[in-house]
Design brief:
It contains seven helices and nine strands; from the N terminus they run H-H-E-H-E-E-E-E-H-H-E-E-E-H-E-H. By secondary structure, the protein is α+β, with helices and mostly antiparallel strands.
């Protein structure tokens, strides 16, 4: 690939993320701009690998909170949106005293973060403390950084599943140590089991559509 072709590739990558970041690029790209584009583009791909809602609050405090609750890692201060994981259907974002509510067609979800020190010390106790923050929730999803484990767990089962993960990835000397990625739970409220089934159906369908779209985009970048 020639230098000209590489520069065109960087510019196509930037066009894809331009509306989500707060930096501009010059006509003649510098090395710093190329690194910045690559840095943000790669993280954008991770955050949008799941069905998502682009949240653009005017309130900067809400933006920072939403990014954290949505699993955005630190080190990306120039994102001006939060990529909120959803089923892929339209949602509304509401703020309450307890945190952020994601109100969808079938399910209302609320991301809840673990206290990382409590989680390492006593995973089961920390899970029970966290689920107690959402007394109306019937199911929970486990949040793993930019990812959400697809299956949901009941209030009784989620401590067992978290214990399984913390035991499996307990070595603090390895990159896959659970303390590096096991960040919290998403609590799901719904009226009946059929609503949850419809939510999961939408998420599965929209994830397939998203994957197909991403494959086409990758081809266009070549």
């Amino acid at each position: 690939m020639t230098l000209s072709e590489k520069n065109k590739l960087y510019k196509r990558m930037y066009r894809e993320i331009k509306s989500f970041v707060s930096f501009a690029i010059s006509k003649k790209l510098t090395m710093r701009e190329k690194r910045l584009i690559t840095h943000y583009y790669n993280e954008y791909l991770k955050l949008t690998a799941r069905p998502f809602h682009v949240y653009r609050p005017r309130n900067k405090t809400h933006l920072k909170k939403a990014q954290k609750l949505a699993g955005h890692p630190s080190g990306f201060p120039l994102f001006k949106v939060a990529f909120i994981p959803t089923s892929g259907e339209p949602v509304k974002i509401k703020w309450t005293k307890s945190g952020m509510k994601i109100v969808g067609k079938f399910v209302t979800s609320e991301p809840l973060l673990f206290d990382p020190f409590r989680l390492v010390e006593n995973p089961e106790a920390e899970v029970n403390r966290t689920t107690a923050l959402a007394p109306k929730a019937k199911q929970f999803s486990i949040m793993c950084g930019e990812h959400l484990i697809p299956q949901t767990e009941s209030r009784n089962n989620v401590p067992r599943e978290v214990n399984r993960l913390t035991a499996k990835y307990a070595n603090e000397d390895k990159n896959n140590f659970f303390g590096n990625w096991l960040i919290g739970l998403t609590a799901h409220e719904f009226d009946n089991q059929g609503d949850l089934a419809d939510y999961k159906k939408d998420r599965k369908s929209n994830k397939k559509k998203l994957a197909s779209k991403r494959r086409k985009n990758r081809k266009n970048l070549k």
